[in-house]
Design goal:
- The complex is a heterodimer of chains A (97) and B (477).
- Chain A is of the alpha/beta class and 97 residues long.
- Chain A has a three-stranded parallel β-sheet, with helices on both faces.
- The chains are: A alpha/beta (97), B alpha+beta (477).
């Protein structure tokens, strides 16, 4: 069989919708008066760590909101993610393991 | 684009065919009597002296399913209404409505194979004429680029070499399923990317699958990507677990899977490549890569892909798919989140009670001897151990009930500090009596070689709704 085109192709096995670069959101200029979410992933003793973070954030004038995932083994449910996005200026997800 | 047929008589020939050479005078005769279009597969100067159309690209031959040369067609208004293959005077005269064709020739000669039917050519022709059914991005390779290195450099490999997913191979892979290439199979974690049958086929090619394995891979992906199995959690945990695939039903034999000797080991293409294909989809589509979202402390070599078939024929019990609610004889694939295998050796027990105690002692160690109701386990009973239960008439349910009784443990052994080990349960549970496994957390399959008084334990991961549950899906063609 004759064919002039000898270019070899392979097919992309990956996610073609993935952006090459994901930009970070700008940092908050300060914490005073901001609503900061603390997401407990529900691993043992994570609350000790988050309690300390809450105390430090309040010292900076932040309004702290606490959230927790039903289980650390699974992603946060969609409604929880949406609630955090609506209510918070920033969120800290933390665990102690 | 499908090549249109000119109306009238059409013949497809090749010079490298003695029958085509033989009928060349007949073609000259037909051409002189009216409309005859001649297509040559290998030489546009053959037959000499006649107007010949060039089909060296085999476009017409491919689209009109020419199986032999010469093939003579009668075409009306662009549609084939009759065809004959090879040389048979009666058939040619009937088709053309002309008499006295090839008087000097023998009455009959078989033709030769069409170039468009060469087995080594079929995949390339399909890719040339049908690859518009493929949607995936085509990535060109530089002329001197080593394709095997390219696959590694682009981050698609699990560390081992892979088969390059060319359009030819992917189209051939897609023959393995009746599902449409653009059907979405699942949203693959962790990035929750919609994954088409075609993308699964691409990764199945890379993993080394044959097309007939593809339905198992597709069903395995469905079993992985849901809240029950929780592939996201299985992937990102620090525990050394990955999806183990258990295949039941006649498809095990049809695709040549191993359920016997070295069942969890190397050497069987289907076992090795099906599990690997699932893991490659999670890596390449879902974005689940070790060291990134995959946070495993140690991992295990089964995370390259661990797939096996149950030995149903030699089992004293109903196949695993029945435990999952399917009828025996159904093609199914089950996913179980687990660590690597470990062997339980008992070469002395010939009574089921004694053997059950051995197996329970081995199962006690899953995760930690003090861990209860947290981690699931899969017990793969070997044929020589299964024989002990068969001869005693123990059903699978009976074995599971006895194991769970033997694995009901006093809190005194489980609390923190017991046995001089700080790990353990809170002191308030000292008076409790607790089961090693949650209800349904221990599963049993039968497989392995005929020699060896062994069974194998796979320690699982956090079981139930708070972790991962085994998920079984029917394998659809």
């Amino acid at each position: 069989m004759s064919s002039g085109d000898t270019t070899r192709f392979i097919l992309d096995p990956g996610n073609e919708s993935k952006p090459a670069i994901r930009r970070q959101l700008p940092r908050l200029p300060d914490l005073a008066g901001r609503s900061i979410g603390l997401l407990d992933i529900s691993k043992a003793r994570g609350d000790l760590f988050l309690d300390r973070l809450e105390s430090r954030l309040r010292d900076h004038g932040a309004n702290v909101l606490r959230f927790s995932k039903p289980t650390f083994t699974k992603p946060a449910p969609l409604d929880l993610r949406q609630q955090i996005a609506v209510e918070c200026d920033a969120v800290l997800e933390a665990l102690a393991d | 684009m499908k090549t249109e047929l000119p109306s009238g008589l059409v013949v497809v020939v090749k010079r490298d065919c003695p029958t085509c050479e033989l009928v060349a005078p007949v073609l000259a005769d037909l051409a002189s009597r009216g409309a005859l279009s001649i297509y040559s597969q290998d030489d546009p100067d053959f037959p000499e002296g006649l107007a010949v159309r060039d089909d060296r690209e085999l476009e017409l031959s491919y689209h009109h399913d020419i199986e032999a040369v010469p093939t003579l067609l009668r075409v009306e208004e662009g549609r084939e209404v009759e065809r004959t293959e090879g040389w048979h005077r009666g058939d040619w005269e009937k088709l053309t409505g002309l008499s006295g064709l090839g008087r000097d020739l023998p009455d009959w000669r078989p033709g030769c194979g069409s170039l468009s039917q060469l087995p080594e050519q079929r995949a390339a022709l399909r890719a040339r004429f049908e690859s518009d059914t493929l949607r995936a991005r085509r990535i060109p390779l530089a002329p001197l680029e080593d394709v095997y290195e390219a696959l590694h450099e682009r981050g698609w490999s699990d560390g081992l070499p892979m088969i390059p997913p060319t359009p030819e191979r992917v189209l051939t892979m897609l023959d393995g399923t009746s599902r449409a290439p653009d059907e979405v199979v699942a949203e693959v974690p962790p990035d929750l990317v919609p994954c088409s049958v075609e993308k699964v086929a691409i990764n199945a090619v890379m993993a080394g699958c044959r097309p007939e394995y593809l339905p198992v891979v597709l069903s395995a992906l469905e079993a992985a990507c849901n809240d029950d199995f929780n592939m996201h959690g299985v992937l990102c945990t620090t525990m050394p677990v990955g999806p183990i695939l258990i295949v039941n039903g006649p498809i095990r034999r049809r695709i040549g899977m191993n359920s016997g000797k070295n069942v969890f080991g190397q050497g069987n293409r289907a076992n090795q490549s099906i599990g690997r294909a699932l893991q490659l989809v999670i890596r390449n589509l879902g974005g689940g890569r070790p060291g990134e979202v995959d946070r495993a402390t140690h991992g295990n070599p089964g995370k390259l892909g661990l797939c096996f078939a149950e030995d149903e024929e030699g089992s004293p019990w109903e196949p695993y798919c029945c435990d999952a609610g399917f009828e025996a004889g159904t093609d199914t694939v089950t996913l179980f989140a687990a660590e690597g295998p470990r062997c339980i050796v008992d070469q002395i027990s010939r009574e089921p009670e004694s053997l059950a105690r051995s197996l329970a002692a081995g199962l006690r160690g899953v995760a930690h001897p003090k861990t209860v109701m947290g981690m699931d386990a899969l017990l793969a009973v070997g044929p020589e151990h299964a024989r002990v239960f068969r001869e005693a008439g123990w059903s699978k349910t009976q074995l599971l009930e006895r194991l769970n009784e033997l694995l009901t443990i006093s809190g005194e052994e489980l609390v923190r500090g017991a046995g001089g080990i700080a790990e353990g349960l809170p002191e308030r549970l000292r008076g409790a009596s607790l089961p090693k496994f949650r209800p349904g957390g221990l599963r049993v399959v039968h497989c392995g070689g005929a020699a060896g008084l062994f069974s194998t334990i796979f320690g699982g991961w956090a079981g139930g709704a708070m972790g991962s549950q085994p998920v079984t899906r029917e394998v659809r063609p």
